[in-house]
Design a protein that fits this description.
With 282 residues, the protein is of the alpha/beta class. Helix content is 53%, strand content 7%. It is built from 12 helices and 4 strands. Strands 1-2-3-4 form a 4-stranded mixed sheet, covered by helices on one side. Helix 9 runs antiparallel to helix 11 and helix 11 packs antiparallel against helix 12. The chain starts with 6 loop residues before the first helix and ends in a 6-residue tail after the last helix.
Length: 282
Amino acid sequence: IRDSNSPIVEAKAAKYLLDLGVDCVNYHQDGATIPITFSASKKYSIGYSSDMRTLIDDYVLTSLTIKWETVLLRIYHSILNGTWLSKFRAKRLWELDLNTISEFSPLVPNSVRKSFYEEVNLIGGNVFCGEFFSIFGTVNGSCINDTQKLNMFTILPGVVNGPKFNQSNVVEDNFIQWNSPIGIATAVLISLGLLYSSFIALDIVIYSNTKVFRSASPPFCLGIVVGSILCYISLFFWLGRPTTALCMCRAWLGGIGYVIIFSSLIVKNYRIWKIFDNKHLE
């Protein structure tokens, strides 16, 4: 999976593996979509980053957890002691007891647990050393270097080399097309709301000097309507194939419209409160 933290891409990759008949998956994504998808199909997974079994269910057999608090506390105390440069900059994160294995799921047989701990004791302290890593070009099973650790894309014997998933592989399955029935219906509803808001804005401008509109504070009313128009326009960008520009318009137009609406409401109410709270006007 080439896109980090993309639930859509993770779900697509997980379903691909399930269709291949995979019973258990190990992954290195920060999200929980992969184990959730496997657990929903009563298949197994090995979690990553945190104890996913506590978040999902027992179909997560165990997890490679990252104890950031351990590292951060050491860094914090080293800064206070003035030893940060000498003590930590030369060290790597995996040398600071960063990783550990969470408790096993009740679904893991005792024999498997025993075999696991025997293998751990056999490997020793550094899992990046030994004959196993000779496939990466090391000599006589020596340790692999930092560059090799960060580029471990070598396919091991017996491992299925599936397609590389990224956002472009799956985006076509996850957006509303303009010419689809739901796309047309959505566009019509947005247009009606936009037209209605535009008529209200025009009405406020034309009759702003009348007694009714003057008492309602036309500038603030107009601000509310303009904000709603921006929100309506932002909804158009949720239709069609997503692009970077479209996603930016979704966030910015909708966010700005929302801020304008509630800023106008808050300022209008504050103005009314200040007027009626003025004792000199009683």
